[in-house]
Please model this.
Amino acid sequence: MSKFRFIVLLLILFFTHLLFYQYLALGEIYPDLFLVLVVYCALRWGPVGGSFSGFLSGIVQDSFSYTYFGLHALTKIIIGFSIGKMRHSFFSNRYIVQAAIILLSKIIHDAIFYGVYLFRAPGGFWEQMFFKTSLSSLYTCFLGIAIYILIDFKSSS
Model:
């Protein structure tokens, strides 16, 4: 993916998040489209690309949220750098491996994010992790693989 395509994809995700985010929800379960982009960039460009896309995506996501400003950026930088560093440890061109990476990344992302955000409410952290994060991780995983297939299809044609 070229830098231009990354910017276009970031803008598409930005406007999708802005205009259609509430329509993508399944009850109180929301996908993390920006995390999908961070994982994709980390797998393609390594730790620097993953960190950079994590920072941009996180700052954009922080502009929408009412949480601590910079918390999304921090967690997405950590995820982008980690996935970028470990990308040679596994064969990442297979969709089943990418699905597992997205699933695990979402769980780790939420553990870091809610560990900081819900620091004073430990019961809230575990409730969030068991109920919402598990379902949100699966939803993000399936939606992410659909986006990857679409990106790869468009890239090959």
The radius of gyration is 15 Å. The chain has a mean pLDDT of 84. The chain has five helices and no strands.
